[in-house]
Amino acid sequence: KQEVTQIPAALSVPEGENLVLNCSFTDSAIYNLQWFRQDPGKGLTSLLLIQSSQREQTSGRLNASLDKSSGRSTLYIAASQPGDSATYLCAVNNQGGKLIFGQGTELSVKP
Amino acid sequence: NAGVTQTPKFRILKIGQSMTLQCTQDMNHNYMYWYRQDPGMGLKLIYYSVGAGITDKGEVPNGYNVSRSTTEDFPLRLELAAPSQTSVYFCASSETGIYNYGYTFGSGTRLTVV
Question: What is the distance in angstroms between the Cα of A15 and the nearest Cα belonging to chain B?
Fold first, then answer.
């Protein structure tokens, strides 16, 4: 059974700092991995999707990497801003579209 | 473009009551999903559908039912509400399943069972 773990559960950084969020999964037979952002009381916004054949994806200040063999993904956020404060969720797709989610990392960026 | 619309946004139910959570998407996506999110946890899949007339169980289906009569609509039914069903419910859709190019989520329904 696929299990997804995110570390740390919460993170607080000063504005401007670069940071890394971690995601690990137990079954490497995945089709893709996705990172989402969730603001309090809101739905999920897709940030980056990495197909199993890819190593990384970039969007603006965000860079996500995937190492399928070791069951790890990282989300790198450059020059963090207070507006980046949110919960970040990692999810893997290894059963025909059904996502398995980690529990999320709650990020707080202090001005 | 509305995306995925969920109603209601909030609901309080008494134990034993029933209700239907509505979900509609206007992107002509084949795949639709219902997830629940408990406090401090990730999302868990309740039911999913790969097209009109086809539904299947996810990780936590007990106490729920779904139907998919049209491509656009995927309602979730709670027949006998229990306190354990207190959660935030999210509906999502995607164009395809395996090699999908991203999910679209609704804004959620916050359900409390008392």
Answer: 24
- Which residue, among A42, A19, A84, has the nearest Cα to B108 in the 3D structure? A42
Nearest C-alpha neighbor of B114 from the set B10, B8, B7, B16:
B16
A96 vs B40: CB contact, 8 Å cut-off? no
CA distance B4 to B93: 7
Report CA B31 to chain centroid distance, whole Å: 12
Query: Are B72 and B47 within 8 A, CB to CB?
Result: no
Name beta bridge partners: B48. Answer: B33, B56
Interface test mutation site (partner B, options A32, A98, A106, max chain B beta carbons within 10 A): A98
Tell me which chain A residues have a C-beta less than 8 angstroms from the C-beta of B103.
34, 44, 46, 99
DSSP A35-55: EEEE-TTS-EEEEEEEETT-S
Smallest CA–CA distance from A39 into chain B, residue: B107
Tens digits of residue pLDDT in B28-76: 999 999 999 998 788 999 999 999 999 999 999 999 999 999 999 999 9
Size of the A and B interface in Cβ pairs below 8 Å: 70
CA distance A19 to B53: 45
